[in-house]
């Protein structure tokens, strides 16, 4: 059934596990994600970016998710990185059960004002709100000193008190995309602990893809050029969950799974032109990946 994200994450916070939030843009991605959650009896968050809404339209995305309403697992339809107020409103109107207002690129006061405006509307309509303080970087940010943008625990308290958000996305070392860092990376768990201690609300980890090197190897064998693609180790994710993260955002991992399946299928079957056959292996790779994440995050049998 379709539920507000507070219902899912308050339980995760109390019982100290995390729920995966998986981005989707098309039917096969959504099916693989929800089927894995259903089979493992896990709550699940399916997220759409503004770009997904431009691609498929909110009516299509909402109705695809609505087809799973009769399942017994809790399903959240969430707007990921709502940067424009217009998209936030469109999603609330169309039936999304949760939204993220991402004004993390603005200064502290502006972030508060933009976030508050969304909270005031969303709360009256039983839609939960996530916001971000500090900034989880991405490929679009270029070379910057990442730690300068980490979430300040004291500011986080003031931000949550002044805005009334339900969940906070924190910046502790992850970044968006398939090229997260060179060398080794350790998340700032000390900072995370401090934030959790002060706030004790569900916390969100963006940029959490692991970039499965087995999939990268297969994709490379079939022509992909993804040298240096690297993600967050499972052990680091486990540590983050143990210390207060309750929602873990994954997009790049499933994109790679999808692409690998298509490449492998087409390379090995030069006579295939039926989309159902072309996307079958992609579905399997995404299903397996989602299942792995659910087990890693501890949300199996928590539906
Ligand atoms: O965090 C961003 C997500 O990976 C969405 O990316 O805007 O290309 O859909 P997108
Ligand atoms: P990845 O690029 O690591 O999958 O992060 C996705 C994300 O944070 C979506 O909000
Ligand atoms: Zn993100």
Write the H/E string, N to C: HEHEHHEHEHEHEHEHHEHHH
Q: Report the span from N to C terminus.
A: 10 Å
> What ligands are attached or bound here?
glyceraldehyde-3-phosphate, 1,3-dihydroxyacetonephosphate, zinc ion
Tally the helices.
13
Which CATH class is shown?
Answer: Alpha Beta
Silhouette: globular
Strand content: 5-15%
Tell me which CATH architecture applies here.
Alpha-Beta Barrel
How many structural domains does the protein architecture include?
1
* Low-confidence region ranges: none
Helix fraction, binned, reads: 40-55%
CATH topology annotation: TIM Barrel
Main sheet characteristics = 8 strands, parallel, barrel
Radius of gyration: 18 Å
- The count of strands amounts to 8
The neighbouring-strand order within the major sheet is: 1-2-3-4-5-6-7-8
**Rounded mean pLDDT score:** 97
């Amino acid at each position: 059934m379709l539920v507000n994200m507070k219902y899912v994450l308050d339980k995760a916070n109390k019982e100290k596990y995390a729920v995966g939030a998986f981005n989707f843009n098309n039917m096969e991605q959504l099916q693989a994600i929800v089927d894995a959650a259903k089979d493992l009896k896990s709550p699940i968050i399916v997220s759409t970016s503004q770009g997904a809404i431009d691609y498929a339209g909110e009516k299509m995305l909402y109705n695809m998710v609505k087809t799973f309403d009769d399942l017994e697992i809790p399903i959240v339809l969430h707007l990921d990185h709502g940067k424009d107020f217009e998209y936030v409103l469109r999603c609330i109107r169309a039936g999304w059960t949760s939204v993220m207002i991402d004004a993390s690129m603005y200064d502290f006061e502006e972030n508060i004002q933009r976030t508050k405006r969304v909270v005031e509307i969303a709360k009256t309509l039983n839609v939960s709100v996530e916001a971000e303080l500090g900034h989880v970087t991405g490929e679009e940010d270029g070379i910057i000193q990442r730690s300068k943008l980490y979430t300040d625990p004291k500011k986080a308290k003031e931000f949550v008190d002044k805005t009334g958000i339900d969940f906070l996305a924190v910046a502790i070392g992850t970044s968006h995309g398939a090229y997260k860092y060179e060398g080794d990376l350790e998340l700032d768990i000390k900072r995370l602990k401090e934030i959790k201690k002060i706030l004790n609300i569900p916390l969100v980890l963006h940029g959490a893809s692991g970039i499965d090197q087995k999939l990268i190897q297969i994709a490379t064998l079939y022509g992909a050029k993804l040298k240096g693609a690297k993600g967050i180790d499972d052990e680091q994710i486990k540590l983050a969950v143990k210390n207060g993260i309750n929602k873990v955002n994954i997009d790049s991992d499933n994109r790679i799974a999808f692409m690998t399946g298509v490449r492998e299928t087409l390379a090995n079957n030069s006579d295939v032109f039926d989309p159902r056959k072309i996307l079958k292996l992609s579905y399997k790779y995404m299903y397996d990946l989602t299942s792995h994440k659910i087990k890693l995050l501890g949300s199996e049998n928590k539906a």
